[in-house]
Amino acid sequence: QVQLVESGGGLVQAGGSLRLSCAASGRTFRWYTLGWFRQAPGKEREFVAAINWSGDSIDYSDSVKGRFTISRDNAKNVTLQMNSLKAEDTAVYYCAAGRVAQFSISLGYEYWGQGTQVTVSS
User: With contact defined as beta carbons under 8 Å apart, do 77 and 23 qualify?
Assistant: First the structure.
């Protein structure tokens, strides 16, 4: 059974940092793009960041660029370092894996985690 399991969410004050991790089991995602999406209450799921299989192509949404950093170990783990957090970063964060043509399009991702809550207090 293929699983992506996120961890590292929690409650943090504005300006603080959190590090999200996503561990894959059941198969290797070495050749897959790994991405992070988020969904706030009442809003649609949105792209946050993604990294291709070799790690040499990375993209971020404009809202997190310069504050978040995505990295991977190529096979089974991807992390999202989140700094200078803002109240508007509050959301459930999902990791995803897929052989995608465009990083920011969620439909291209085949596998999804269950999500981890990030709450930023102002």
Answer: yes
* pLDDT score, position 95: 97
Residue numbers of the chain with a pLDDT score lower than 70: 74
Residue matched to tokens 């950093």: 69
Rounded Cα gap, residues 11 and 16, in angstroms: 10
What gap in Å lies between CA 19 and CA 7, rounded to an integer?
9
Q: Which residue shows structure tokens 């290797």?
A: 28
- Angle value at C-alpha 118, between 84 and 47, nearest 5 degrees: 80
State how far the Cα of 79 lies from the Cα of 20, in Å rounded to an integer.
Answer: 5
Could you tell me the CA-to-CA distances from 45 to 53, 91, 95 in Å, in that order?
Answer: 23, 9, 12
